[in-house]
Design a protein that fits this description.
The chain is of the alpha/beta class. The protein is 38% helix and 16% strand.
């Protein structure tokens, strides 16, 4: 590990920062790239450059650093009203980063996809498995572009047999430091639920996410892996654990209301997100345990509880 060179895109986020610290501690050389400056936790021995993954200059940065491994975390995570920019970053930026890294000699690419790439299927009654194809959910951009990348990724991997690809499909990452659409909803002024629906939901603790990313960099076998904590919790349990009482509404009412509120900038998420608290999307993780070689330390309930407990300590509950 001491001679390994690792590039992390989207490095200013807390997971990128944690991975950078882990790599530096092991003696690797690290270059972090992001469009925003990192926080105070960025390791002093790691290099950092401001860099847009959609820019042509990315190739020059990669070439000058000559990475062994690329960890591509750059993504538009939270919903925005700029769909074209999301497409540029998520689709164009991902391909640009992969091509630049391979041209610069990278022998391994770690790509965190998402279980949302499986999309939403109202008829689904079984666990989602790695061999299942992506299902692009156009109403929710994050999930839609994760699926779109996975549509072309197999052909891209086949065209570059000298590069190992580790594709991770984590569920929602949660924990004391997490700030994502789930924490935004849980801490918002109103939580709603769709009448007649109470789907099971998976969570992954941020410490388990860090460990999986680390192992993917160092020695995980190439392949695709679902990543989630053990067990599930119902949406109603999630609400109770967060100390909230969700307002039940029929689907025919809540979808147009949320769509209008999103359009007017009154809510931070579009109506497409509702599908993920209406229908089940639970992933099997036996391949993670048996082939990748890791069993998450935290269950789904324990991961969410750690987030809630951190809110209590901070006076947010």
């Amino acid at each position: 590990m001491s001679e390994m060179r690792v590039v992390i895109t989207g490095a200013a986020g807390y997971l990128g920062e944690a991975l950078a610290r882990r790599c530096v501690a092991a003696g690797a050389e690290v270059l972090g790239l992001d469009i925003r400056e990192p926080g105070s936790g960025w390791p002093a021995l790691a290099a950092f450059n401001l860099q847009d993954v959609t820019a042509e200059s990315l190739s020059e940065k990669m070439e000058s650093f000559s990475p062994d491994v690329l960890v591509h975390l750059a993504w538009v995570f939270d919903p925005t009203h700029h769909r074209e920019r999301e497409r540029e970053v998520d689709l164009g930026g991902t391909e640009n980063a992969f091509r630049a890294a391979i041209a610069a000699g990278a022998r391994r690419i770690v790509y965190p996809s998402s279980t949302t790439a499986y999309g939403v299927d109202p008829q689904r009654r079984r666990l989602m498995r790695e061999e299942d194809g992506p299902l692009a959910h156009a109403a929710y951009p994050y999930a839609y572009y994760k699926a779109r990348v996975e549509e072309w990724l197999p052909q891209f991997i086949a065209a570059h047999p000298d590069t190992d690809f580790v594709v991770l499909r984590p569920c929602i990452v949660i924990g004391p430091r997490a700030r994502n659409i789930v924490t935004t909803v849980a801490e918002g002024p109103l939580m709603v639920r769709i009448s007649g629906y109470d789907p099971p939901i998976q969570f992954l603790h941020e410490e388990d996410a860090e460990e999986v990313f680390w192992r993917a960099v160092v020695d995980a076998p190439p392949g695709t892996y679902n990543v989630a904590g053990g067990g599930v919790m119902r949406y109603s349990e999630l609400c109770r654990a967060a100390g909230r009482t969700p307002v039940p509404m029929p689907a025919a009412l809540i979808y147009p209301l949320v769509a209008a509120a999103w359009f007017l900038r009154l809510l931070p998420y579009p109506a497409g997100l509702l599908d993920f608290v209406r229908y089940p999307w639970v992933a099997a993780t036996d391949r993670l345990v048996q082939e990748f070689g890791y069993k998450p330390r935290y269950t789904t309930r324990e991961a969410f509880a750690s987030y809630v407990e951190s809110r209590v300590r901070q006076g947010g509950a």
